[in-house]
């Protein structure tokens, strides 16, 4: 028995800036990640001080070659088709289409690359799911406008959208406007192509919310434009999700968790409901945040999304007691208290499959719009054996638990269209620039310094996921004979 509908879209997810490589190839402009070193050389400091990083020269930039998906996409997609993928989530690199973001005409070579990529997907029976801006605002727009802090980026983004909507209307049906839109409050450089390092805390907070507003308006206008170009387009928003639990039943902790959850839901409230919620307006007033919101903006925001997509890696835990909150652990950018009921990965991320079910139910109850789980996975250190095997039982266990809980959410009554696990082929980490933190079913022979053959090898999880898809989520067991 399975809880998944027959048309459920199983697949995997990557991002152009983390896998394509081909730095400046065929007329591509610089991406945000193209100035970032690895963690060993201060990647996080570079993320927080991008204009300083732009003036430096580092020994190695992981994005410049990455796993070279740009030149290997056909064989990589064939491996995904072998697993039975129904859908493949990827992104279009905005600077590959408009190298400077505000160019008069698009880059023909960049357009042709995605022609080939999406056509190959269809030839293999795979439906593309395309993120329009996945932490990939052209670097030139940082230098010229300080990114999304400037209202002019709305029109530049819409010009980019119009080009790709018309170009790929017969190849792409599912679109996501911005990846993890709430991340702009936490990593404004990747999320918004902006540098707030020289601003006061108050000014930086205002700048980030102003940039977020511009993205929300751009998303709404892009949704309207998409439906005008092709009424069959399905346009979704994308949230870095994961419910925040209260540390204790103390009402103060419960309130703290409520406020933490609202910080992320604020974006989707606007995109799914078409207006700013009262709690957000109250927050702006309390924090002294003054945002330029025009009447045209308010009218534009009424163009809401068709579905809600999100990433989920783990839940979070928070306390209202500052002394307790000192003891925090790692997560997907978000810090969290250590939950004694949850195990952690090698990177300190807590794993919580039940949290996915809780998160899905809460998002569904809040919006009553179809969901799409577009990121979920376990980053771990994989060992390639002398006979080119990777025995990743830990990944299988994590994914099996999460998929089981996703199925139970569907049984609860949640409507969900599909599931694309993150990093279905190993790629460069967004936050650290590492290759060592691997998520994929496919091992790529490349290390943190860029050494290796770049060859691809199937992990044990490859055949396991193939079995999951073939049984439509009914068989989540790890059958050893499958990988012998």
From TrEMBL:
Entry-linked Pfam families: Glyco_hydro_1
Stored NCBIfam families: PRK09593.1 (NF007158), PRK09852.1 (NF007356)
Source organism superkingdom: Bacteria
Key words of the record: Glycosidase, Hydrolase
Alphabetized GO MF terms: beta-glucosidase activity
Gene3D superfamilies assigned: Glycosidases
Active site: 375
An annotated GO BP: carbohydrate catabolic process
InterPro entries: GH (IPR017853), GH_1_N_CS (IPR033132), Glyco_hydro_1 (IPR001360), Glyco_hydro_1_AS (IPR018120)
PROSITE patterns per record: GLYCOSYL_HYDROL_F1_1, GLYCOSYL_HYDROL_F1_2
GO cellular component: cytosol
Species of origin: Agrilactobacillus composti DSM 18527 = JCM 14202
Name recorded for this polypeptide: Glycosyl hydrolase 1
């Amino acid at each position: 028995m399975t809880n998944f509908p027959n048309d459920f879209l199983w697949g995997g997810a990557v991002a152009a800036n983390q896998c394509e490589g081909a730095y400046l190839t065929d007329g591509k402009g610089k991406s945000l990640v193209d100035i970032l070193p690895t963690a060993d050389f201060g990647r996080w400091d570079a993320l927080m001080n991008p204009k300083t990083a732009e003036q430096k020269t580092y020994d190695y930039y992981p994005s410049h070659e990455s796993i070279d998906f740009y030149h290997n996409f056909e064989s990589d997609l064939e491996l995904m088709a072998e697993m039975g993928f129904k859908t493949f989530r990827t992104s279009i690199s905005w600077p590959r289409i408009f190298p400077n973001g505000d160019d008069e005409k698009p880059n023909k070579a960049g357009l042709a690359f995605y022609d080939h990529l999406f056509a190959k997907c269809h030839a293999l029976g795979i439906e593309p799911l395309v993120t329009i801006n996945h932490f990939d605002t052209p670097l030139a727009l940082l230098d010229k406008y300080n990114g999304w802090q400037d209202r002019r980026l709305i029109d530049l983004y819409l010009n980019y959208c119009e080009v790709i909507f018309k170009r790929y209307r017969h190849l792409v049906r599912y679109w996501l406007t911005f990846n993890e839109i709430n991340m702009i409050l936490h990593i404004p450089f990747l999320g918004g192509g902006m540098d707030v390092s020289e601003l006061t805390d108050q000014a930086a907070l205002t700048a980030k919310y102003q940039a977020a507003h511009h993205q929300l308006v751009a998303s709404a206008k892009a949704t309207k434009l998409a439906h005008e170009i092709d009424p069959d387009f399905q346009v979704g928003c994308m949230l870095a999700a994961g419910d925040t639990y209260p540390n204790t039943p103390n009402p103060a902790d419960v309130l703290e968790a409520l406020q933490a959850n609202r910080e992320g839901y604020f974006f989707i409230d606007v995109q799914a409901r078409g207006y700013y919620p009262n709690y957000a307006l109250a927050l702006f007033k309390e924090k002294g945040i003054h945002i330029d919101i025009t009447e045209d903006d308010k009218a534009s925001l009424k163009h809401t999304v068709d579905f809600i997509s999100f990433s989920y890696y783990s839940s979070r835990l928070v306390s209202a007691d500052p002394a307790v909150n000192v003891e925090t652990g790692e997560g997907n950018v978000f810090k969290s208290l250590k939950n004694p009921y949850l195990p952690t990965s090698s990177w300190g991320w807590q794993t919580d499959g039940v949290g996915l079910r809780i998160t899905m139910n809460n998002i569904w109850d809040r919006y009553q719009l179809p969901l799409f789980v577009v990121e979920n996975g376990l980053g771990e250190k994989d060992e390639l054996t002398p006979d080119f095997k990777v025995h990743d039982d830990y990944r299988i266990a994590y994914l099996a638990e999460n998929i089981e809980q996703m199925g139970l959410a569907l049984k609860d009554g949640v409507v969900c269209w599909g599931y694309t696990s993150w990093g279905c082929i190993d790629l460069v980490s967004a936050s650290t620039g590492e290759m060592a933190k691997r998520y994929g079913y496919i091992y790529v022979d490349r290390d943190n310094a860029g050494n290796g053959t770049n060859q691809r090898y199937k992990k044990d999880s490859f055949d396991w996921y193939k079995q999951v898809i073939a049984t439509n989520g009914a068989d989540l067991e790890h059958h050893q004979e499958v990988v012998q």
